[in-house]
Design brief:
It is a single chain. The chain is flat. Helix 13 packs antiparallel against helix 16. It has three domains: 74 residues, SH3 type barrels, CATH 2.30.30; 93 residues; 243 residues, MetI-like (MetI-like fold, Orthogonal Bundle). It contains 16 helices and 13 strands. Helices cover 59% and strands 15% of the residues. The strands form three sheets. Strands 6, 7, 8, 9, 10 and 11 form a six-stranded antiparallel beta sheet that branches. A five-stranded antiparallel beta sheet has the order 4-3-2-1-5.
Length: 550
């Protein structure tokens, strides 16, 4: 036994066990967020049942069984619920009842033993709305301009046709408001700043002012035409509505303009549910959020995360590589260089929120404020660059991750054989040529390794971004069709902050919980995709220069 310990085999097995446990924990975590996140989009069946309340009265409820748990009878009695029977453990279910505008809440707990007359009628309808969440009930009739045009089962087919028409009109309204009118507003603001710039310069040239006035008149004409088109669209979209009977017997009228989609889950086949599932999944990754980020999609957050990481990579790579080249190739190797290396290594351990505070003070207030004074005086006192935005967020994260790139690049430079350098110099190349044409290409796999580590850390950071640019909901993307196309001063959405906001700041915790898992899974997938792309580039570079290392 003593010789076995001396051989080191126990430590090998111990390390193998530790690695295995770590892998299993990672797999378990990924499985948890995958099941919880992706399961949210499956259309659950709607149950209808009678429920006995704690005071002995009865209620008629309709909803989805969301989750179940076992609780002790003592715990329920402590809340004042005494009508629970003699069992020491009680099964209760969390029911998504929807209809928040009718009942005031869309989730409630029910005790299983009090449920009676449970059924799953095929005519129960789920109506996803743009406001107030889901509505559950029975479709009674459909109205056109206040006049009933279909009732009962015949209303369902007419409802589907009119909803498709309404969705088309709504898409046209959204395109006009968000794209065309948004572009006009951007142009109007640009002309306002141009006129203000002339005023500050004391330039009252009538020709220049006339050009601006002509452009403003043209924009106003376009705006008036779009406003007329919007009025017509809103008249058309506000024409139809439906009447729905909810669980307590009340009738609710819902305009079709407020409806996203509708379906009958109890009457859907397996293929219908699969189609609905992928439609919801596509909406999640391609649409804008709604209902305080608890419904709809998260495309702006995906776009903002990827764009910020790409900008950060553009900034951090040259800074980190140049610093590493200086430390390894040019700086005299003494106590000062060792001190700088220690400082760089220590920077990697500084809390990220400290970088956020530095970014806010230096990049936003100092650098951005001075840029506004020099280049955007016509916009003052409204800041242009002197406000948090995606540029400052990218620079802050570049500063946060630059130690990783420096260390990885230095390691790569140190692995380039000295004979390669000497051979290049012997053939007449200068030191700069040797470095640029021989050493750096051979060290490029290590540079890509540093970039991979930087991406992995930066993509998941949230604390510094809360200070330098990320917001709960961004009205416009940093990249669009309006000049200058890439708007580095704009605020943006981020998947990590979206998880924090939905998980801890949402007014509807139960509705937001599945989206936390789904967004976390998507963030992991985005990081993995970015890393795999960088790894593929690194492997190609490694294969290309492998022969030079031997």
């Amino acid at each position: 036994m003593k010789s076995w310990f001396k051989s080191g085999a126990p430590w090998v097995w111990l390390n193998a066990c530790a690695v295995s446990v770590s892998i299993l924990m990672v797999i378990g975590l990924l499985a948890l967020i995958t099941v919880r996140g992706l399961g949210h989009f499956w259309p659950a069946d709607l149950a209808e049942f009678t429920y006995t309340e704690r005071d002995g009265g009865t209620s008629h409820l309709v909803g989805e069984f969301h989750e179940s748990e076992e609780v002790s009878a003592e715990q329920l009695k402590a809340t004042g619920d005494l009508n629970i029977g003699d069992s020491p453990w009680i099964t209760r279910h969390l029911i998504k009842t929807g209809n928040r505008d009718v009942s005031g809440m869309d989730f409630r707990w029910v005790i299983e033993s009090r449920i009676s007359s449970l059924s799953y009628p095929e005519t129960l309808v789920v109506i996803e709305r743009r406001e107030w969440g889901n509505l559950y009930g029975y479709l009674d009739s459909i109205q056109e301009a206040g006049r009933t045009v279909a009732e009962g089962e015949a209303a369902w087919e007419a409802f589907q046709e009119r909803l498709t028409r309404t969705e088309d009109i709504f898409s046209q309204i959204r395109a006009i408001e968000k794209d065309e009118i948004g572009s006009i507003n951007s142009s109007v603001e640009r002309l306002r700043l141009a006129k203000r710039k002339l005023e500050l310069a004391g330039d009252d040239d009538p020709a220049k002012l006339a050009i601006i006035a002509d452009e403003e008149a043209g924009l106003q004409s376009r705006y008036d035409a779009l406003q007329k088109a919007l009025i017509e669209h809103y008249k058309a979209i506000g024409r139809d509505s439906i009447t729905v009977t909810v669980a307590d017997g009340r009738q609710v009228q819902v305009p079709l303009a407020k409806i996203v989609r509708t379906y009958r889950p109890n009457a859907m086949s397996t293929m219908d549910k699969i189609g609905h599932y992928f439609a919801k999944l596509w909406e999640f990754v391609s649409d804008d959020p709604r209902e305080a980020n608890t419904e709809g999609g998260i495309f702006p957050a995906i776009f903002g995360t990827i764009m910020m990481v790409m900008l950060m990579s553009v900034f951090v790579t040259p800074f980190g590589v140049v610093a590493a080249i200086y430390l390894r190739e040019y700086a005299r190797q003494g106590w000062l260089t060792r001190t700088i290396r220690i400082a760089v290594n220590n920077l990697a351990g500084v809390p990220s929120i400290v970088y956020g505070i530095f970014g806010l003070g230096f990049f936003v207030y100092f650098l951005g404020g001075n840029i506004d004074q020099l280049f955007f005086p016509e916009a003052l006192p409204a800041p242009t660059m002197g406000t948090p935005g995606i540029l400052w967020a990218s620079l802050t994260l570049a500063l946060l991750t630059v130690p990783v790139v420096i260390v990885a690049t230095e390691e790569g430079l140190s692995r380039v054989p000295r004979a390669v350098r000497e051979g290049s110099l012997a053939l007449g190349a200068t030191k700069v040529e040797t470095l640029w044409r021989t050493v750096l290409p051979m060290a490029s796999p290590a540079i890509m390794t540093g970039l991979i580590l930087a991406i992995a850390r930066a993509a998941g950071e949230v604390a510094p971004l809360m200070l330098v640019g990320v917001v709960k909901l961004a009205p416009a993307l940093p990249l669009d069709g309006d000049f200058p196309y890439l708007h580095l001063d704009r605020k943006f959405m981020h998947l990590g902050f979206h998880i924090y906001d939905v998980g801890f700041q949402s007014p509807n915790v139960e509705a937001a919980r599945p989206l936390v898992y789904a967004t976390a899974l998507l963030l992991v997938l985005v990081i993995v995709a970015l890393n795999l792309a960088a790894i593929a580039i690194r492997n190609r570079l490694r294969e290309k220069y492998k022969s030079l290392e031997h």
